[in-house]
Each structure stands twice: as structure tokens, then as C-alpha cells.
């Protein structure tokens, strides 16, 4: 284990803060004990140099009295040569200054303000180590020159014709062999040479003999103590009168010391080059893995050892793993191996933190603890050299050289190399960590910027969407106001004309009533659409599922739009694929009435097109598509409905020759409140809800709907698919009444109590019921109805829900509290403008048997009354 050396450093800088920084950097170095002297002026620095034995100088380039170059020149004048390692400090970063400094005798230079503690310590210690090593080399060269001047030479003469061999007395001394050992023959001479050199020596001498020339060669041989000596031999071949080789005479000189000095010099320059290469790589590369691999590979080659590893600690238990490895052939590879040394934390942590080096020349020499010996033996180690790697004053890991083949004496030059490289590795690690930190910060900053940008974009998008939603809402409210008011105009107008103008003939009166009826239905449909959308958005829209034929659904919807289609002279067709029922693959045209359906061979409740669904909602789907087709198809156009079965799906295809759909609007055709443009709204009317309702209802039935169009004025095709039922034709509900049954029944003899606070509604319902023969009694409030009811013995109660003081729910609860003989079980119909699903359920829950939404359609209302009376009977 190496001892801590003392080094005296002179810092010459006129800045107190900089001197304090350099002092702090140096005193944290655990490898050396520093004595630090300081000077503000160059002249003060020269004076301190004269008084003290300095190891190195940190010299600022810009000083108040002289600059750094002038200081170096003055130093050389006094010593005739640069015998002091100097590191120049410059804040200019000017390469020309660095070149001048190096020419003037500086060992190195560093840039002020950009130098870390590790770089400063490395620069000054490397300069001192190089200076000391050069001094040692100069001394060795002086000794070598003296040795060569006083070298002892031995000689031998070999008679080539008689093969006799004569040695001088000094040859035994040069070759370090016993004087009794006789080199009697040439062969005995070859035997003292080590086997690796023997062949080349023999060939060189024999070549000289054959060519009658001189030779000079170097070879190694074993001394008596087993060590190897280097010998230089010079020889000459002499010939006889016939020019035939006669004898060879050679001199022998021991050049072992010279060879050792040469190897030291080579090792020194190799070390310098290796440290420089790795330092350059550290400066130029941020690839830590590549730097570590280069380090272990180059160190193993330089030391000619069996294994070099870099070991990284894992805190807090000081275990770790082999991070990088270079291993010779035939030895155990331990890359990535997790290593735990139970003795390490106790015996070595603090020493390594202080920068101590562990030098083990033989693990069995008794200097190591048994647990440490056992650990090294696992990895075939006989000797090792361990240098700590410090990262910003923290013990990061170890740089370790293993000799596995045999014990080994580690040289100071080798220790110095590992120390310098460990410092470089520490700088590389710190640099890598800083780079990772900067990269992380940049990544986080970039992410923050991206998040901010995304937030701004999202905010802009939401703002645009909000503005778009507000615009759509404003447009919708304007459309709603227009669509609700438009039907009111002819309704109110013709109503006033009918009330005031008694000169109208019957034809004109009928026309006026038809106009009023048509516009009232339009307004009613608008309200129904709004209620449906409300139910959809709240998830409250329910289906009353039953088995029903799509033929019936489509036929009913066609009958509804037939008059409006005929008014525009639109060719309206319904085509059914009869191959599902008949032995034909042709499409059969269906007229629309039930009798005509039978004539075509297609049943009204065709079992081939049975689906499970809500008949009212299915008819609403088809009616919406058909009414759109009629609305957007010009006069004389064509509107076709096809019904097909494709595998397990029923396809309803509605095709028109109308205005078509642009490719830009096609993806939005089923959106709520969306219409192609405001011109469409003004020209064709509507709220833009119909197709949105269609899509929702189709999906509720487990189906799909899509729209296709080639573009403007190219017509449109809507394809709806429903899952078919694989069941036989079902019977009609026994409680349902056919149209014939409805038409054949009347209400004669029925006593009906009608309760409504609105006079017009009360008189209208009374008129409808009386037209079918019913005896109607009216009440304008629930309280009045309770007064009338006990003596009326009514067969049916028709009551409005929303009334002042006592509503329809309260009225029915009072009646249901009566005894059956008092009329407590009377059939009751709720008649109300509250048309939601919840309103219907609430009405049924309090005891109403049926729920009819206003406005009332007379035929449907009579049908409800007949069904209810039929059930009660």
C-alpha cells in the first residue's frame, strides 16, 4: 500500500477568490498532502521559488507586474533550463497563448472558469509526475553512459576449420557463468542462450560466416540466480589465403541496464500516450461505456496482466458488480458478476475514500484477511492492484488489475498510470452524469414546452369547439324559432279566416282545414323530435320490443309519405327480395295496401323479414328516411325502398335522386343539430335532428346505418341493417285490434268523463268522443270532477295531468281510494302535454291504464279508447 506523499505547490494569481478555489480543489485530493504557497505578483512568485523547494507552480497568465510568459523566461534565465513543472492558468482561451506558454517551458495549460477540481488536480500532478520521471530518466541515461564507458568486454575465438573454441577470462564475468564452465564448443555456447533467442543468434552467425561479413546482435541468457541478462555481441569472420572462413572472433558486453532503461523510457512514453488518448476521449466523447471499455483494454495491454475490470459500488451496503472487463484468453470472465465482500466496508471503504491504493503482490503473503483471500481466489487472482475511482469526492468504484498466472511486483510507473486513468474515469463519469442531468432537464423542459403547446392547442381547440357549439346552438335556436313559428302562421291565419269569414264555400273550408291539420302535424313532429333527443341525451329512451315484419313497417311508413310524394310527382317504389320467401331471386314491387301485398304473394307480416324491435320506433326510422328523401328530391324525381336479406341481416335501402350530400358533410350527416348549410335550412326546413335520431334508434335495435352519395345533385342512399329473427311467424297480439275492428266499433252507450282545465282541449276531446256516439260529461277541474263523479256512473275517465290546485295524479288517487261499486276501478286515460317516458311511467304507476300525449290524433285516440274498453269488458 503506497504512502501519501507531500507536495509543495506555488499558486501565483492576483485574484484572491481564484487562489482560494485552487487551494480548496487541491486540499480535497486524498492522494497527496499539499503545502500551498501563494503570491499575487510574478516577482513575489520568483522570490518564493528561490526560497523554497517547490514541486510545481500554478501560474496565472495575466499578472499586474509581468505576464506568465515573462515569468517563465525569467525562470529559465536563472536556471539555464526549465527545472520546474508549471501549469499556466489563462482566462483568454487563446490557442496562441497556450502555444507560447508551452514553448516557454510550461508543462500544461488550463482555462480559468471552465476547470473542475479533478481536471486541476490531474493537470498539476501529471506535470509533476512527468517532470520527476524525466529527471529519473536523465539520471538513468547518465548512469548508462558511464556504464558503457567503463563496460567490461569478454571475447571468444572460434576456429572454424578445427572447431576449437577459446574464451577470454572476462567472458565468464560478462556472462555470469562459473569459471569452471567451459564453452568448449559452439553448441555449448548456444545452450546458454534462452530458447526464444537461440535460433536467431545461430542464423545470424552462420549467415555472417557464409557471407564472410561482420555481425552485431543482442540476445538474452539466464544468469546463475535465474534472472535474465541482455548481451550485445559483435563479431567478425577472418579468412585464409584461399579466402575460406578460418576463424570468428566476437566480443560480448552486458547491456542489461541499458535495456531496462530503454524499456522504462518506452513505458513512460507509452503511459504518456495512453493517458493522453483516454483524456482526449473523455474530452471528446460522452459515451461512458466506450470510454470504460477503452480504458480496461489499454491498461491490460500496457501492464501485460491477465484481467482488468472496473467495479461499481451499490450503496448503501457497498456491494456491486463488474461493469466493464478486459480478460486474457483462458482466464475466468466475470463481467456483470455481483460481488459481495463482507470485509470490505470495515477494512477498505474509508481508505479508498481518502484515495489510497491497494497493492497486493501475493494474496498468500499473510497481509490480507482470510475472507479477502477467499474472494480473490474465486477469481483465480494471485496479485492485484486496486485504485479508487472518485466522482465529485464520492467513492464511485474501483479500477482493478489482476495477475492470475503468478504473484507480481507492481512498479511505481504502473501505479501512477492507474491513478491517472482512475482520475480520467472519474471525470468521464461526472461528465456523463452531468450530461444525463442536462439531457433530463432538456427533456423535461421540452416536455414542459410540448405540454404547454399542447395545452395552448387544446385550449384553442376547446375555445373553437365552444365557439362552434355556441354558433350551432344559436343557429339551432334560430332554426327552432323559425320551424315552430312557420306552422303557426297558416294555423292561426286560416283559423281566423274560418271564424270570421262565413262566405267560404265547402271546398275552400276543407282546404283550410287540411292546411291547419298538415301544419299542426308538422309542429307536433318537431316537438316529438325534440323530446326524442332529450330522451337520447339522458339515456331514457326505451324500446317496447316485439316480433314484427319489416314489410309491414316499411309499408306503413310509405303510406304516411305517399301524399307528399304524389304532390311533388315523385315516383315512389317499394321492392322486396322475394327469394327469402318464394322460389325466385327477383325483386318484387310492392304497392302499399295490405290487399295489394297479398296479391304480390308477400305476406304483410312476412316471416322472412321478422325482427325484434319497437314497431313505433322502427316506423319512425323508415319514416324519417323517407320524409328526408321526399323533402330533398325535386319534382319528378324517384324514391325507392329496397328490402333484402343478406345472411343474417335485413337491409333496408332508401335511394333518392335528390340534391345529394357533399363529401365534406357526409361524415357529419348523422350528427345532432347539423345541416349542410343555412340555405338548406331556409329552403327545406327542419331542425337537423331526424338522421341523428335514426342512427340512435337503429343502434338501439342492434343495427347499423350508413349514408352514401356521389356528391351534390347526385342523390343519396341510406342503408340500414337489422339482425333478423330465426323464428316462425308469430301470432298477432290477442288484445290488438285491426283497422276493421276499430272501424266496426263505436262508442254508443259509453258514459265518459273528460277533465281538462283548458276549454279548447276539453271541447275538442268531447267532440271526438261524441262523434263516435259516446255520452260525454266535462269538468274544468279535478275538484269539479270529484263532485260529479259519484252520481255519474261513468264507464271511462279521460283526465289531463297538469291542472291547477289538484292535478290529474291527485284526482286519480282520490278515485282509486273509492270502493269498486263507487267507481274506484274505472278505466282511466291520462291525457297530457307531458309526453316523456318518465311521464308515461308515472301515469301508469298511479293507476292510469293508458297515456296519450297531446296533440291528440283522433283516430289513434279512439283506437286507445276501444282497446281499453275491450280489455275492461
Automatic annotation (TrEMBL):
Record keywords: Coiled coil, Kinase, Phosphoprotein, Transferase, Two-component regulatory system
EC nos: 2.7.13.3
SMART domains: GAF, HATPase_c, HisKA, PAC, REC
Every Response regulatory domain range: 8-127, 751-869
Catalytic activity: ATP + protein L-histidine = ADP + protein N-phospho-L-histidine
Domain PAC: 215-267
Residue ranges constituting the Histidine kinase domain according to the UniProt record: 479-726
MF annotations from Gene Ontology: phosphorelay sensor kinase activity
Domain Phytochrome chromophore attachment site: 287-424
Residues modified to 4-aspartylphosphate: 60, 800
Coiled coil feature spans: 439-472
Pfam families: GAF, HATPase_c, HisKA, PAS_3, Response_reg
Entry function: Photoreceptor which exists in two forms that are reversibly interconvertible by light: the R form that absorbs maximally in the red region of the spectrum and the FR form that absorbs maximally in the far-red region.
Family statement drawn from the similarity comment of this UniProt entry: In the N-terminal section; belongs to the phytochrome family.
Protein name: histidine kinase
Organism from which the protein derives: Mastigocoleus testarum BC008
Amino acid at each position: 500500500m503506497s504512502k501519501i506523499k507531500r507536495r509543495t505547490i506555488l499558486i501565483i494569481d492576483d485574484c484572491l477568490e481564484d487562489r482560494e478555489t485552487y487551494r480548496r480543489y487541491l486540499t480535497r485530493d486524498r492522494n497527496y498532502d499539499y503545502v500551498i504557497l501563494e503570491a499575487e505578483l510574478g516577482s513575489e512568485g520568483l522570490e518564493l521559488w528561490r526560497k523554497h523547494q517547490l514541486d510545481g507552480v500554478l501560474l496565472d497568465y495575466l499578472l499586474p507586474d509581468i505576464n506568465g510568459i515573462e515569468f517563465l523566461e525569467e525562470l529559465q534565465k536563472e536556471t539555464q533550463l526549465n527545472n520546474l513543472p508549471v501549469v499556466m492558468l489563462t482566462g483568454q482561451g487563446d490557442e496562441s497563448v497556450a502555444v507560447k506558454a508551452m514553448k516557454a517551458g510550461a508543462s500544461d495549460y488550463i482555462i480559468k472558469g471552465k476547470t473542475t477540481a479533478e481536471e486541476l488536480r490531474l493537470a498539476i500532478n501529471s506535470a509533476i509526475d512527468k517532470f520527476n520521471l524525466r529527471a529519473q530518466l536523465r539520471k538513468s541515461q547518465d548512469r548508462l553512459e558511464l556504464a558503457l564507458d567503463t563496460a567490461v568486454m569478454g571475447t571468444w575465438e572460434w576456429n572454424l576449420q578445427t572447431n576449437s573454441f577459446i574464451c577470454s577470462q572476462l567472458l565468464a564475468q560478462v556472462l555470469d557463468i562459473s569459471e569452471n564452465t567451459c564453452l568448449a564448443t559452439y553448441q555449448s555456447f548456444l545452450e546458454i542462450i534462452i530458447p526464444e533467442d537461440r535460433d536467431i543468434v545461430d542464423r545470424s552467425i552462420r549467415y555472417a560466416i557464409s557471407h564472410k561479413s561482420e555481425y552485431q546482435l543482442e540476445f538474452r541468457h539466464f544468469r546463475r540466480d535465474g534472472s535474465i541478462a541482455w548481451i550485445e555481441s559483435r563479431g567478425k569472420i577472418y579468412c585464409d589465403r584461399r579466402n575460406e572462413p578460418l576463424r570468428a572472433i566476437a566480443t560480448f558486453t552486458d547491456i542489461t541496464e541499458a535495456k531496462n532503461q530503454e524499456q522504462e523510457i518506452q513505458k513512460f512514453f507509452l503511459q504518456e500516450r495512453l493517458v493522453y488518448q483516454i483524456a482526449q476521449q473523455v474530452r471528446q466523447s460522452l459515451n461512458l461505456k466506450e470510454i470504460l471499455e477503452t480504458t480496461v483494454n489499454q491498461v491490460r495491454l500496457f501492464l501485460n496482466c491477465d484481467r482488468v475490470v472496473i467495479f461499481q459500488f451499490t450503496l448503501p451496503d457497498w456491494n456491486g458488480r463488474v461493469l466493464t472487463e478486459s480478460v486474457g484468453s483462458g482466464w475466468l470472465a466475470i463481467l456483470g458478476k455481483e460481488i459481495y465482500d463482507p470485509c470490505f466496508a470495515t477494512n477498505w471503504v474509508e481508505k479508498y475514500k481518502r484515495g489510497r491504493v491497494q497493492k497486493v503482490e501475493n494474496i498468500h503473503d499473510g497481509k490480507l484477511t482470510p475472507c479477502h483471500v477467499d474472494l480473490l481466489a474465486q477469481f483465480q487472482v494471485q496479485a492485484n492492484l486496486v485504485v479508487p475511482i472518485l466522482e465529485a469526492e464520492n467513492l464511485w468504484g474501483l479500477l482493478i488489475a489482476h495477475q492470475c498466472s503468478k504473484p507480481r511486483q507492481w512498479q511505481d510507473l504502473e501505479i501512477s498510470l492507474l491513478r491517472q486513468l482512475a482520475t480520467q474515469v472519474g471525470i468521464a463519469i461526472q461528465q456523463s452524469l452531468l450530461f444525463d442531468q442536462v439531457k433530463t432537464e432538456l427533456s423535461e423542459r421540452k416536455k414542459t414546452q410540448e405540454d404547454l403547446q399542447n395545452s395552448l392547442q387544446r385550449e384553442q381547440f376547446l375555445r373553437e369547439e365552444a365557439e362552434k357549439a355556441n354558433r350551432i346552438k344559436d343557429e339551432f335556436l334560430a332554426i327552432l324559432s323559425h320551424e315552430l313559428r312557420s306552422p303557426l302562421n297558416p294555423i292561426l291565419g286560416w283559423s281566423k279566416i274560418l271564424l270570421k269569414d262565413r262566405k267560404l264555400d265547402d271546398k275552400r273550408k276543407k282546404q283550410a282545414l287540411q292546411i291547419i291539420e298538415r301544419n299542426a302535424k308538422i309542429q307536433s313532429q318537431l316537438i316529438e323530435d325534440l323530446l326524442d333527443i332529450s330522451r337520447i341525451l339522458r339515456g331514457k329512451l326505451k324500446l317496447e320490443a316485439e316480433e314484427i315484419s319489416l314489410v309491414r313497417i316499411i309499408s306503413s311508413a310509405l303510406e304516411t309519405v305517399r301524399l307528399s310524394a304524389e304532390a311533388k310527382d315523385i315516383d315512389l317504389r317499394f321492392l322486396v327480395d322475394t327469394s327469402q320467401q318464394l322460389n325466385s331471386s327477383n325483386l318484387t314491387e310492392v304497392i302499399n295496401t295490405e290487399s295489394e301485398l297479398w296479391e304480390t304473394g308477400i305476406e304483410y307480416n312476412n316471416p322472412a323479414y321478422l325482427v325484434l324491435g319497437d314497431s313505433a320506433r322502427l316506423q319512425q326510422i323508415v319514416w324519417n328516411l323517407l320524409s328526408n328523401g321526399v323533402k330533398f328530391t325535386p319534382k319528378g324525381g324517384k324514391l325507392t325502398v329496397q328490402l333484402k336479406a343478406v345472411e343474417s341481416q335485413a337491409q333496408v335501402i332508401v335511394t333518392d335522386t335528390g340534391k345529394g350530400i357533399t363529401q365534406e358533410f357526409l361524415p357529419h350527416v348523422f350528427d345532432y343539430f347539423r345541416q349542410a348549410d343555412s340555405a338548406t335550412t331556409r329552403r327545406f326546413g327542419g331542425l337537423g335532428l331526424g338522421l341523428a335520431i335514426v342512427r340512435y334508434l337503429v343502434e338501439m335495435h342492434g343495427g347499423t346505418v350508413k349514408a352514401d352519395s356521389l356528391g351534390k345533385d347526385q342523390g343519396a342512399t341510406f342503408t340500414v341493417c337489422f339482425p333478423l329473427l330465426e323464428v316462425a311467424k308469430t301470432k298477432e297480439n290477442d288484445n290488438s285490434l285491426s283497422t276493421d275492428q276499430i272501424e266496426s266499433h263505436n262508442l254508443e252507450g259509453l258514459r265518459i268523463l273528460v277533465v281538462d282545465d283548458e276549454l279548447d282541449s276539453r271541447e275538442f276531446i268531447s267532440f271526438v268522443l261524441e262523434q263516435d256516439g259516446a255520452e260525454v260529461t266535462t269538468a274544468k277541474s279535478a275538484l269539479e270532477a270529484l263532485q260529479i263523479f259519484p252520481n255519474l256512473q261513468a264507464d271511462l275517465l279521460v283526465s289531463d295531468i297538469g291542472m291547477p290546485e289538484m292535478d290529474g295524479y291527485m284526482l286519480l288517487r282520490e278515485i282509486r281510494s273509492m270502493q269498486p261499486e263507487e267507481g274506484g276501478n274505472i278505466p282511466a286515460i291520462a291525457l297530457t302535454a307531458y309526453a316523456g317516458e318518465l311521464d308515461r311511467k308515472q301515469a301508469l304507476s298511479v293507476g292510469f291504464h293508458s297515456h296519450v300525449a297531446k296533440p291528440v290524433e283522433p283516430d289513434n285516440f279512439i283506437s286507445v279508447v276501444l282497446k281499453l274498453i275491450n280489455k275492461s269488458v
